[in-house]
Specification:
The chain has four helices and eight strands, in the order βαβαββαβββαβ. Strands 3-2-4-5-6 form a five-stranded parallel beta sheet.
């Protein structure tokens, strides 16, 4: 049975556990594509913008699915929010910064920002700030594969694949083919230092 935004699935224990397998993740992407497309109007000029890294591939996949439904190509772009992070000074001495790529104009378009996991909201805040540098969109929405709660900023997603309650000492890790060989989502235990336990 496919998970929905109203069916949280919470694995427990101290080992890495799969929340969404490949099939379930693809089913959620198809649902998200239907929801985004269903909210479209002819004059929207839809643009999907993924947050690097994994949000970019999710945006590309959703755009493909919408295009297959509508018969029209959907523009996609990418944002690297590194320079817009409110903790940029703590990133490290040599942060890796990729280029952001936005096709054409943002002004007066309906833009859907796509990310893999919504947590504190700070990544999305940075993405909104960067996106505004490219123009004034008619409307900006947010689509995430996973909402894990524990927000620190008043930011909510318009389109959510699945909501997950994350036990203390764990984090959510999404997988996409380009980076990880397949789609999926895992619940990963953290070690005492705050990193993923091996």
């Amino acid at each position: 049975m496919a998970l929905t935004s109203t069916e949280p699935h919470v694995p427990v224990g101290m080992q890495t556990r799969t929340i969404l397998n490949e099939t379930e993740a693809r089913e959620l992407l198809e649902r998200l594509a239907r929801e985004i497309d269903g909210a479209s109007s002819p004059d929207d000029r839809l643009l999907l913008v993924g947050i690097r890294r994994r949000g970019v591939e999710l945006a590309d996949r959703i755009a493909e699915l919408i295009g297959a439904r509508s018969g029209q190509e959907v523009d996609t772009g990418s944002l690297d929010i590194t320079l817009y992070r409110d903790d940029f000074g703590q990133v490290g001495p040599f942060p890796v910064i990729h280029s952001s790529e936005i096709p054409g104009e943002v002004t007066d378009r309906r833009v859907v920002i796509v990310d893999d996991v919504l947590f504190t909201g700070r990544t999305v805040r940075a993405a909104l700030e960067e996106l505004s540098d490219f123009g004034r969109a008619k409307k900006v929405e947010l689509c995430v594969l996973v909402d894990r709660g524990d927000r620190e900023l008043p930011i909510q997603a318009d389109y959510v694949g699945v909501v997950v309650d994350v036990p203390v000492g764990h984090e959510v890790s999404a997988r996409v083919p380009e980076e990880d060989g397949e789609f999926g989502v895992d619940l990963v235990p953290l070690d005492a230092g705050g990193g993923k336990a091996s």
